[in-house]
Design a protein that fits this description.
The protein is built from ten helices and seven strands. The chain has helices spanning 3-7, 29-40, 73-85, 110-131, 156-176, 194-197, 201-209, 219-230, 248-251, 254-264, and strands at residues 20-23, 44-49, 64-67, 90-95, 135-144, 182-188, 241-244. It has a seven-stranded parallel sheet, with helices on both faces. Strand 5, helix 5 and strand 6 form a beta-alpha-beta unit. Helix 3 packs parallel to helix 4 (110-131) and helix 4 packs parallel to helix 5 (156-176). The chain is globular, with a radius of gyration of 19 Å. The two termini are 31 Å apart. It binds 1,4-dihydronicotinamide adenine dinucleotide. InterPro entries: KR_dom, NAD(P)-bd_dom_sf, SDR_fam. Residues 19-171 form the Ketoreductase domain. One of its GO terms (molecular function) is oxidoreductase activity, acting on the CH-OH group of donors, NAD or NADP as acceptor.
């Protein structure tokens, strides 16, 4: 499949007509890709992020945008009030907003630690706590985790926050299941966005070397999974964790082993 095929956001879009879906951290990267894909699937998307002005990635798309800092419980309540006043039946939430901080355990500053957990964990909790009461049966919540949630990556605050998000996902899936609300988490691998643009070059190279598909991923390749989970095509899927990572988590370093052995002894 070519790069332009992969970037085509109209591939395999499930039906989401008329569903109101809130997406956080939608100014760019994976959030914007998800918002645009959901929009083209017929959803009424409420795209949110930190900036007051509509972000460049969403300008001219007709997509509804509003400011929402996910760490601000009052802002979540305001959004809920808005949706209720407009009688918009909420059917989905994508907890996508996230930040990284590449400090190791012996260097991490407490303020940075708290900031990462506030956005990546508390932000998602506030979103679920505030918006789930507005959701009818058949609704779906998608949390954006990370492959860092599946093993011990060195940016300790980020890794810890994404592991915590798994706990939140399982707990919310248990609690909200009886109301017909599904909660799942996806674990992207190395996806080309602003977040990874700041990663050391060697990190990208090492990641590719450990990834069976031997490339990084694109934001749309996560968005298609998110759209699927929001749709009725995933109606019996809840509490699930789905990596979208080119096989990185599945291989769990075994690719490195296989490649090293093949290089030293092609017949082994
Ligand atoms: P990004 O940096 O392009 O997008 C993150 C967005 O979150 C930004 O638009 C930012 O303004 C927003 N944001 C940050 N703090 C916020 C707050 N307090 N309230 C509201 N919005 C806030 O990065 P990317 O890659 O699109 O990240 C999306 C999600 O995917 C994040 O949760 C990230 O942790 C996760 N992820 C990314 C991977 C990658 O390789 N790019 C890999 C695994 C997970």
């Amino acid at each position: 499949m070519s790069e332009s095929d992969l970037a085509d956001s109209t591939r395999a879009i499930p039906e989401l007509t008329g569903r109101t879906i809130v997406v956080t951290g939608a100014a760019g990267g994976q959030g914007a890709a998800a918002a645009l894909l959901l929009d083209s699937a017929g959803a009424r998307v409420v795209a949110t992020d930190l900036s007051a002005a509509t972000p460049a990635a969403l300008r001219g798309t007709g997509l509804r945008y509003r400011r929402l800092d996910v760490t601000d419980s009052r802002a979540w309540r305001d959004l809920a009030g808005e949706l209720e006043r407009e009688s918009l039946p909420l059917r989905g939430l994508v907890n996508n907003a996230g930040i990284t901080w590449r400090s190791r355990i012996l260097e991490v500053d407490e303020g940075d630690w708290n900031r990462v957990l506030a956005v990546n964990v508390s932000g998602a909790m506030l979103g679920i706590r505030t918006l789930a009461p507005l959701m009818a049966a058949g609704s779906s919540i998608v949390n954006i985790g990370s492959i860092a949630a599946l093993n011990g990556h060195y940016p300790v605050a980020y890794t810890t926050s994404k592991w915590a998000l798994r706990g939140l996902t399982h707990s919310a899936a248990t609690e909200l299941g009886p109301r017909g609300i599904r909660v799942n988490i996806v674990h992207p691998g190395f996806i080309e966005t602003d977040m990874t643009a700041t990663a050391p070059a060697v990190m990208r190279e090492a990641q590719i070397a450990l990834t069976p598909l031997e490339r990084t991923g694109l934001a749309n390749e996560v968005a298609t999974l998110v759209a699927f989970l929001l749709s009725d095509a995933a109606s019996y899927l809840t509490g699930a964790e789905i990596p979208v990572d080119g096989g990185f988590a599945s291989s769990a370093g075994a690719k490195y082993l296989a490649d090293r052995i093949a290089a030293s002894s092609p017949t082994a």
